[in-house]
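Supplementary Methods, section 5.1.

A reviewer requested that the exact input to the structure prediction be made available. We therefore reproduce it here, unchanged from the version used in the analyses.
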Amino acid sequence: MTETPIDRGDVAARLAVAVGRINRRARPGTGALSYGLLSALSTIVRLGPLRPGDLARHEVVTKPTMTRVLSDLDARGLIERVTDPLDGRASVITATRAGVAAVHEARHERAGIVSQLLADLDDGDLRAIAGALDALERVAQVEPMPARSGRSAAPTGSVHSAHAASDGAASGGAGGGTASGRAGGGALSDTVSGEALAAVPAATSQA
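The structure derived from this sequence is encoded token-by-token as follows.
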């Protein structure tokens, strides 16, 4: 029997809506990093040291927008600027210990929230979501998360305790309340795999 052709437009539209709603529902408590700040900080932790211009290209934002984001992160003590060893006239951005801890805490918090969102799904639905993660991570252009065999995504109480931690709403702005809008790229990366669906591979013991 001939399979029905996939309507790529319909898949894209439904995925966009689902990702947006997951982001809103996985929004942490007040006082957290905005989505744009967390996205930039995550990139610095993952790829740094980085020049500000290179970071702006990775995050798909303008240089003035990235300047505002970096100023905010610097004021919070989450990044530091050091002289570029290849060009003494330039500087590169690295994450401080507090910055690395903020990224890990935020990802754990969002994973805990999404884990609760998935709690009512049966094993078949979870396997279907887990089976789509590799493709979603390729779309998002991020490295797959390592397998964590035998561990659940987050303790049941982690969501409640994490609301005092960091991460911020995924409202689509590059710097949340501090910067102007951005295009896809890094947004989908943190939204789909690094953040919003981080709980799925852990919940099913798959990467």
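The radius of gyration is 18 Å. These observations are discussed further in the main text.
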